[in-house]
Amino acid sequence: MGEKTVSVNRKATHDYHILRTVEAGLSLLGTEIKSIRDGHVSIREAYVRPQNGEMWLVGAHIAQYAPAGRDNHEATRSRRLLLHRREINELERESQSGGTTVVPLRLYLKDGRAKLEIALARGKKSYDKREAIAKRDADRQMQRALRRRR
């Protein structure tokens, strides 16, 4: 079946240096997976938090599934991430150390199951962000110049 990307957190790559990525499953309700398959999800404001030996996705918005009627889910509830114990311990330990956090990068469907790519990340300084924007603009101008030459 392959992979189908449903939502990407572009803000995370702008605000953070990505150190390491991990694939995590999501513990979802039936109406949530149906809404995800329809593409009604946003992980832009979401973050990952360790709590009681588990990792939780907080702040992700999965829109209510219209055909479900009154048996729907809460759109912004916290959702448990499915990870191996070793991965949870490593991420929790590394996120406790100075200046790092765990952020969601993208939500995708893999063989019919919802997966979340999460990353251990360190916050960028404002000058790093300006440098990235300047590099992107320079690359864009170079591509334009090359296209005009042909």
Describe the overall structure.
The mean pLDDT is 89. 33% of the residues lie in helices and 38% in strands. The protein contains four helices and nine strands. The protein has helices at residues 10-15, 30-37, 85-96, 126-149; strands at 3-8, 16-26, 41-42, 47-51, 54-58, 61-62, 79-82, 100-110, 113-123. The protein is globular, with a radius of gyration of 18 Å. A hairpin with a 2-residue loop joins strand 8 (100-110) and strand 9 (113-123). The chain has a single domain (3-124), classed as Small protein B (Small Protein B, Chain: A), CATH 2.40.280. Strands 1-8-9-2-7-5-4 form a seven-stranded antiparallel sheet. Strands 3-6 form a two-stranded antiparallel ribbon. With 150 residues, it is α+β, with helices and mostly antiparallel strands.
Overall form: globular
Give the helix/strand class: alpha+beta
- Mean pLDDT figure: 89
- Cα-atom radius of gyration: 18 Å
Describe the main β-sheet briefly.
Answer: 7 strands, antiparallel
Strand content: 35-45%
CATH topology: Small Protein B, Chain: A
Q: Please count the beta strands (DSSP E, at least 2 residues each).
A: 9
CATH architecture type = Beta Barrel
Q: Specify the CATH class.
A: Mainly Beta
Number of helices: 4
Tally of separate domains: 1
Instruction: Give the H and E element order.
Output: EHEHEEEEEHEEH
Percent helix, as a range, is 25-40%
Whole-Å distance between the termini?
39 Å
In the sheet with the most strands, the strands line up as 1-8-9-2-7-5-4
